[in-house]
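Work Package 4 report. The design task specified in the project plan requires that, given a folded chain encoded as structure tokens, an amino acid be chosen for each position. We show below one input record used in the internal validation round.
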């Protein structure tokens, strides 16, 4: 396994991404919530992703290096306590997880199927995240002017706003793990997934990945609305690092899985959100990944497709090393995952079973001061 800085990440490692993917990922990476945030050029991924050199350039809205954002105590052993009076330990054993005071809103009513994916206990972790810190840096104005800079200076305001999206995250994921990632809006879930996919270089810390990654980070990443479904299959496959011949081999199977019929020959912009998700999911799962990243990818799918997607994920997990699933649906996390982390404000709050993490998180939201402002669980 090679060790590379983020600035010179190349294709020798796990997740190979092309310029097409990088360009297509830009809007997702740079979907800013702060004015003035600009898209950032995505980079290739590699087996080992480390923070770039301290003087690496940071585009607006991008993750940046330096600036003391690294927590010395970061990692699995660190428990953030963002809300007083309710602090489940970061590495709380599953048995110690607090029981919910009320039933979780997304409780699963049907009996839970235990996910027992093949695990080699002696194998090194499929993914190792070490003291990962990611800080976004955005400017306040889209086009800063000298006048606005002087006004800001006069007021003693900084022209750049930093968002500490991930703060010293440390955890390992062993083979055979389907890891659910739970957390409130803005907790850092998508940032973590982008970092794992190699789209976003760490500000500091390190990610080690053993294997090929296929990522379904958000709807239509790597896709082009003007191209047909079929053309987008080729684009998506190339973006995931396959050759044209390899994509062509799988194209029919992907089309069948997506069940889009004649829509496969129509432009993607004519698809509903659910249809586009079906295509994106079909492409990602047919890349035969060792590690699959799925970020809220199934939210728009209908019930039948969700079932089919779950069955496909099961199948993948019998050969894939690991899967990461971000979802606001605790039911999906409980249903599909055999391990979970809960992150809050960029810090690891808890590692445990999906049930235990979901229960602790639900309880946290119920007593937290933001409980009424959060729409999702
Ligand atoms: N491109 C960006 N530029 C600046 N800040 C960003 C950018 N992307 C995300 N952030 C900030 O980073 C933090 C974490 O965002 P992230 O999207 O990772 O959260 P999340 O847990 O996925 O949230 P949600 O559940 O709402 O999707 C938030 O405070 C967000 O405002």
């Amino acid at each position: 396994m090679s060790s590379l800085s983020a600035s010179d990440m190349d294709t020798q490692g796990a997740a190979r991404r092309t310029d097409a993917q990088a360009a297509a990922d830009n809007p997702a990476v740079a979907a800013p919530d702060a004015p003035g945030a600009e898209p950032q050029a995505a980079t290739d991924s590699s087996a080992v992703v480390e923070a770039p050199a301290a003087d690496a350039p940071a585009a607006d809205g991008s993750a940046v290096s330096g600036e003391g954002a690294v927590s010395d105590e970061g990692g699995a052993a660190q428990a953030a306590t963002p809300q007083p009076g309710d602090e489940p330990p970061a590495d709380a054993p599953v048995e110690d997880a607090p029981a919910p005071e009320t039933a979780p809103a997304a409780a699963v009513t049907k009996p839970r199927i235990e996910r027992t994916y093949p695990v080699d206990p002696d194998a090194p972790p499929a993914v190792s995240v070490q003291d990962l810190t990611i800080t976004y840096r955005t400017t306040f104005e889209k086009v800063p002017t000298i006048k606005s800079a002087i006004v800001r200076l006069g007021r003693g305001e900084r022209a750049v706003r930093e968002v500490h999206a991930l703060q010293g995250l440390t955890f390992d994921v062993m083979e055979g793990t389907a890891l659910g990632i739970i957390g409130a809006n803005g907790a850092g879930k998508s940032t973590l997934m982008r970092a794992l996919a190699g789209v976003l270089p760490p500000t500091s810390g390190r990610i080690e990945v053993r294997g090929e990654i296929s990522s379904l980070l958000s709807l239509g990443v790597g896709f082009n609305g003007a191209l047909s479904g079929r053309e987008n299959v080729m684009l998506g496959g190339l973006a995931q690092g396959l050759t044209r011949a390899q994509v062509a081999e799988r194209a029919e199977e992907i089309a069948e899985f997506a069940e889009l019929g004649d829509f496969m020959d129509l432009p993607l912009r004519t698809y509903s959100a659910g249809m586009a998700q079906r295509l994106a999911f079909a492409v990602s799962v047919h890349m035969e990944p060792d590690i699959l990243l799925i970020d809220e990818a199934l939210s728009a799918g209908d019930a039948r497709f969700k079932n089919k997607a779950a069955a496909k994920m099961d199948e993948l997990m019998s050969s894939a090393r690991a899967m990461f699933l971000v979802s606001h649906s605790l039911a999906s996390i409980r249903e599909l995952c055999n391990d979970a982390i809960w992150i809050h404000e960029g810090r690891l709050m808890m590692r445990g079973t999906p049930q235990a993490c979901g229960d602790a998180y639900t309880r946290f939201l119920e007593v937290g001061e933001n409980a009424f402002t959060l729409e999702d669980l």
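The mean pLDDT is 69. Validation will be extended to a larger panel in the next phase.
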